[in-house]
Design brief:
Layout (H helix, E strand, L loop, with lengths): L1 E6 L2 H17 L4 E5 L2 H7 L14 H6 L1 H18 L3 E5 L2 H13 L3 E5 L11 H8 L2 E4 L4 H6 L6 E2 L4 H6 L5 H10 L7 E5 L4 H12 L9 E6 L5 H5 L8 E4 L2 H7 E7 L2 H8 L4 E5 L3 H10 L7 H6 L5 E4 L5 H12 L1 H18 L4 H14 L2
Parallel strand pairs: 1-2, 1-3, 3-4, 4-5, 5-6, 7-8, 7-10, 8-9, 10-11, 11-12
Length: about 375
């Protein structure tokens, strides 16, 4: 069995690797060809293209890199035809993957989509295209099944794969102490900074995040470094020995954190599932933001608030993301009663997301469909 898998971002790399591992556990005779990152590479060797060459964020940034994107699409189409897979497995990354899905469908290649594009947020009309070109959609958010049902499209809700991923990364007190010591951190409360995975978002958000450090002398801070970004890129924003940059350790950082400043995206849900009170930070290219504001139809930008359908965690968006506001909101989540309120909300979040085993369930459903012909 030959499967072609495409993930274009860091979170997709994690979920893609877990899904590939689950497929291999259930079907030993499977060959993968893929676009992804280091985690997927640990399962199936070198990618055709690495995620560090694929992640472009925002309308303006996509336009600026349009030639590269079109070359990647052309390469991907040619590579799929040469490989002739039994199925194409697409993981989120809709701008790229929906184009490839249509191409594959036109060439009679079965198309599975794992982790739905956020069509419920904007471009809802894309559901009609998805119905036409995707053989089966596997969703991970509880409200997505009902959303698709409004369009008479039956999807599989498999649960959220982060529940399994986070369960695997819980640390003991001794392990936490060792982690802090090994990275030159002190034995005092830690606030983690998650400025994003792309250079353009890091350069906007990290300076604001680190500007609050002097207001919290009783805490230590650490930056979560994106795997595809060199440490020298972070150094330009940091004073000497001001804060540690720690790579490939997101979950270990969250295990050890008392609070966090987090860029919108999957990291907000990860932070919630680790029960770390957070302030959600978003600021982008001004024109891209204004365009998105006109198009996007959701009340919140963080997955925590979207899933709970209420503003449990504070979102500081665009002009609201200032040093003064971050200090104010960080003080709130460090205060005992508000902290308890957030932690209660996180407990509800875990209940709403439901059972574990998303990767195994998805693998089983995909293999069953393939074997049935």
């Amino acid at each position: 069995m030959k499967l072609y898998v495409i993930a274009g971002e860091a979170s997709g790399d994690v979920h893609g690797a877990n899904l590939m591992q689950a497929i291999r556990e259930q079907e030993a005779q499977v060959d993968f060809r893929f676009w992804g990152g280091d985690k997927m590479a640990s399962i199936a060797g070198e990618p055709v293209r690495h995620i560090k060459d694929l992640a472009f964020m925002g309308f303006i940034e996509v336009l600026a890199n349009l030639r590269t994107i079109m070359k990647n699409i052309k390469l991907c189409k040619e590579d799929i035809l040469n490989y002739q897979p039994d199925a194409l497995i697409l993981i989120d990354y809709p701008g790229f993957n929906l184009r490839i899905a249509e191409f594959a469908k036109n060439h009679n290649i079965k198309v599975f989509y794992y982790i739905s594009p956020q069509v419920w947020a904007w471009k809802q009309k894309r559901v009609h295209k998805i119905k036409r070109i995707v053989d089966k959609m596997y969703t991970i958010l509880p409200f997505e099944k009902a959303f698709y049902q409004k369009f008479d499209y039956d999807v599989e809700y498999v649960g959220h794969p982060l529940l399994d991923e986070i369960d695997k990364h819980q640390m003991s007190d001794n392990e936490k102490a060792d982690f802090l010591k090994n990275h030159g951190l002190e034995d005092k409360p830690l606030i983690a900074l998650f400025p994003g995975s792309r250079q353009q978002e890091i350069s906007i958000k990290l300076p604001i995040m680190i500007s609050v450090i002097e207001a919290f002398p009783q805490f230590q801070f650490a930056v979560s470094g994106a795997p595809a970004i060199d440490v020298s890129f972070y150094d330009q924003f940091l004073k000497k020995d001001q804060v540690k940059v720690i790579f490939n350790s997101n979950y270990k950082l969250l295990n050890c954190s008392h609070a966090a400043l987090v860029t919108s995206g999957t990291a907000t849900l990860e932070t919630g599932l680790f029960s770390v009170p957070q302030v959600v930070c978003y600021k982008g290219n001004k024109l891209s933001y204004l365009l998105a504001k006109k198009l996007i139809k959701i009340k919140y930008i963080s997955l925590v608030n979207l899933i709970l359908d209420r503003p449990l965690v504070k979102e500081l968006i665009q002009d609201e993301l200032t040093t003064k506001n971050v200090i104010e909101e960080l003080n709130k989540i460090l205060e005992t009663s508000h902290r308890a309120h957030v932690l209660e909300g996180y407990a509800e979040l875990k209940t709403v997301l439901g059972n574990k085993g998303a990767s195994q369930k998805t693998a089983s459903l995909m293999l069953k469909t393939l074997k049935a012909g």
